[in-house]
């Protein structure tokens, strides 16, 4: 038998997901991307003002989280459990997955694939590296900061990165930076900088003159495939 507090929590979550506008907004986030309130309003077919009210309720219900980067505030699903619940509801209702939202970031495919973001690597490749490290338990996120496990430290030492000897020790070891085009996090901080520097040293990556685009060499394609566990090519 479900106790009363548990039943109330289920009812509250179901109520939040059950509103058509909120359901469309949540469905737009199911792919893991982070979207602005304006983008979510467009996807749900409502005004930005109405979207703000719905987002406030979703935040209070802990179904979404928000983070500010620059001038914009981005929203994403609060956890994989929320995505699983949405997929379950879609299956029950035979509701198709949400149509893909408009692509973001640079139009240049090479820049979408790999580029510099200040002093670290960004783009799909950087996001996939970060996701792989998380999946293997080498890195985990805590309040916007990436924390390496002991195995993670050994992994990067073997790769030629000793974070104890990197410059600017007061700078965070790893800060999670929301990727402009992928809308998922990549690594910044001392670790992000060291990774870019090391891959350039290895000849895996080459800077492009007068551009943020990074060129991945044949050696880099092989090396990153070994690091990630699968081959990746620009889409």
UniProtKB/TrEMBL annotation:
GO MF entries: cadmium ion sensor activity; DNA binding; DNA-binding transcription factor activity; lead ion binding
Start and end residues of each HTH arsR-type domain: 2-97
Source taxon at top rank: Bacteria
Any one of the GO BP annotations: response to lead ion
SUPFAM superfamilies given in the database record: Winged helix' DNA-binding domain
PANTHER family per the UniProt record, alphabetical: TRANSCRIPTIONAL REGULATOR-RELATED (PTHR39168), TRANSCRIPTIONAL REGULATORY PROTEIN (PTHR39168:SF1)
Protein name: Winged helix-turn-helix transcriptional regulator
Highest classification ranks of the organism: Bacteria, Pseudomonadati, Pseudomonadota, Alphaproteobacteria, Hyphomicrobiales
